[in-house]
């Protein structure tokens, strides 16, 4: 039997890295504030359902009440919503933003060059609030939270 050096023993304490330089991270054992996140998700789904199903209520008051409750719970529990969650809610009127139902979307280019790099996606809510996202600069952009794949080590 060969003796183990001190260097060989200390390798087990460092990050677990495979041959491609990818850090292998075990999944978390539990999600913090799981009950709060489940409640927020349920309120969002309920609001979306009422927005889609109820055509008689043009003001969408029940759906907006659910989103208002979601916002209050999120602030009280200090739970962070993902960027995709936030993009689907109007901050001023608390509506769920659904294309052709509660909002209109268009790509505009107000620059002098009129190149594709300067395209801006404009989401206009029924209340008049507009959200603008630059889409021409990097069409494949995804926020850090939505990126799929392993975490790479920088060398």
Mean pLDDT: 82
How much strand content do the residues show? 5-15%
Low-pLDDT residue intervals, each spanning 5 or more residues:
4-10
Order of helices and strands: HEHHHEEEE
Radius of gyration: 23 Å
Keywords: Metal-binding, tRNA processing, Zinc
Organism: Lachancea dasiensis
Pfam families: Rpr2
InterPro entries: Rpr2/Snm1/Rpp21 (IPR007175)
Any overview of this molecule?
The protein is an alpha+beta fold. It has one domain. 30% of the residues lie in helices and 14% in strands. It has four helices and five strands, in the order αβαααββββ. It has helices at residues 6-10, 34-53, 61-77, 83-87, and strands spanning 22-23, 103-108, 120-125, 130-134, 151-152. The strands form two sheets. A three-stranded antiparallel β-sheet has the order 2-3-4, with no helix packed on it. It has a two-stranded antiparallel ribbon with strand order 1-5. A hairpin with a 4-residue loop joins strand 3 (120-125) and strand 4 (130-134). Helix 2 (34-53) packs antiparallel against helix 3 (61-77). The longest helix is centred in the N-terminal third of the chain and has 20 residues, at 34-53. It is flat, with a radius of gyration of 23 Å. Belongs to the eukaryotic/archaeal RNase P protein component 4 family. This is LADA_0B05644g1_1. It comes from Lachancea dasiensis. Keywords: Metal-binding, tRNA processing, Zinc. InterPro entries: Rpr2/Snm1/Rpp21.
